[in-house]
Amino acid sequence: MATSKDVAKLAGVSHTTVSRAFKGGERMRKETYDRILQAAGELHYSPNLLAAGLRSQKSSTAGIVISHSGVAFFMNLVQELENQLQRQGFRLLISFDSGDPEKQQNAFQAMSSARADSIAFMPIAPPPKKKTEMLEQMKASGIQYIQLFNDALDGFGSVLIDDVGGALAGTRHLLDKGHRRILMIGGYNRIEGFYKAYEEKKLSAPIPHLPLLDDDLKICRNNIRQAIIERKPTAVFCISDQIGAITYGILSELKYHVPDDISFLAFDDSFWSESLSISVIGQPIAEIAGNIAGKIFSYSRGADAPRSPASSRTVFTPFLIERNSIRDISQ
Amino acid sequence: MATSKDVAKLAGVSHTTVSRAFKGGERMRKETYDRILQAAGELHYSPNLLAAGLRSQKSSTAGIVISHSGVAFFMNLVQELENQLQRQGFRLLISFDSGDPEKQQNAFQAMSSARADSIAFMPIAPPPKKKTEMLEQMKASGIQYIQLFNDALDGFGSVLIDDVGGALAGTRHLLDKGHRRILMIGGYNRIEGFYKAYEEKKLSAPIPHLPLLDDDLKICRNNIRQAIIERKPTAVFCISDQIGAITYGILSELKYHVPDDISFLAFDDSFWSESLSISVIGQPIAEIAGNIAGKIFSYSRGADAPRSPASSRTVFTPFLIERNSIRDISQ
DNA sequence: CTGAAAGCGCTTACAG
DNA sequence: CTGAAAGCGCTTACAG
After folding, report:
1. Which candidate in B82, B132, B138, B236 is best for mutational testing of the A interface (most A CBs within 10 A)?
2. pTM value?
């Protein structure tokens, strides 16, 4: 492939000047600039980022490592992020860890070897025993690590979702529509918002939430099915799109029609939710991606100054998307 | 970060030897090898791929550019591919073009600047006017371009799906279950298999397929709805997971229960299809990913010899995954 | 506004 | 089995 020297020769300048032209053409005669771009065009010159990165110690490359690939949310997030990065001339490396700490370490290693400037990832609990060493290495690496949806690690920036707020808003909505026998399916911190919504109205939840402790989806499925049959909820509230899909399948099998026979609400938006007209607690994906991109840009730009891993923490609030899966039984 | 020279100093060897150790340690005293790895471990040495790539002219990086990010299939494919690449020490760049030829060119440019060894992509029709120039540039780039699910471009390898075969198998299955009034929803080459299945049985299709010519999903939705109401099919066969989702939503709205009131079959597997127990024409994702990975590896390895862009063409056959969305009405 | 020189951290012949 | 030297293609002071 053509190099900057080839372009320089054709344009009758030095390769230093070519380099300058490709960095925006500051402090340069417009004529020279145009001549260089013309020459570059003729030769199909594509600046070698390996060389540039090696010299400048910035690769203009970010990495993202995904834990739960099944969730449509992440695909959309990755796409949004890549779009924003691309506009600023950044590239995106992708890797998957399936929630396995060892795989996550491997992904870090691979991306760090490629000298990614920043790596966004979802901290996996429980971390390996050599946690302290790992943290030190991460901090010493010169790479900006960005925690996604979980700020388990100290000293690193994070972008978070207000899970409690989302569950609160969702439950409140169901309560407002007259539902009391709400079955919250799934555990983690989101249940806090569930109970809080009842408290706000001086009520107590007649059906406790259903934790999904088992990793085996079949067992989860059975537990959900049983809970729906036995607890007779008027509404279900699912912790994720995945749990939502399983639950919707059970409802269909049971020939419960949504929303006539039972109301339905789930976290995370997806194409299926939209098509089935399911009300959902959505995440502001574009804004989340924008925030991650912003962290990446500011870190890479600030790299001239001594890199200060400012560990900023941003929280995004999920919002209700009303569709037609919830029946108003309030009168 | 530590460099090979740092490791060399600590291990008491030259950095040449360090490099050799990291390439597998051929022709080297085991003792030396161990000493180097030990030193590298202490220093958290991570070989600089930018430097290695610059010198060796191979980056051990592949790229994939996705057109239809909405389809769960692609997320799974990317994950499978990344897993296989990762095991061989390759990294994966990802980009999205939303089916826009210009965005696709930008993605090529960005990846080519990063000196990706191979780029997998879905050829977009209609290509830009400067098609010939584009093709020449792609061929001259030294990058292996791999066409996905479409071999519109001459001279590049491709991995394809036998769409006709998939539609044939699906329609045949429906016919075997006694269905005749099958509404095939969606167009493209898959419809060929649809009609072929009827021909095999000396039948002619009582309901023509429903092409989805409009880009506007709302209009598509209306067309599908109307066709279902007016044509009274006993079974629908959807061209993709996305169309499947829309159609399933319409059925649910119409209070048609699957499979009691109507049978349902769609292309592409997804978590929602599985959860709703929808029979599906699935793609052998792991094998497809394996084939792409294989093309990437063999090209990168063969790079010692003059790079011969062997334009191999591999076709994968979709297969039926039977679940419970099709009623047997054959007796 | 432009250029010559040095150097980023590796790999690759070549030599021994 | 190991090392010294050259060079990949850029960017970055420095000089003019």
Report:
1. B82
2. 0.93
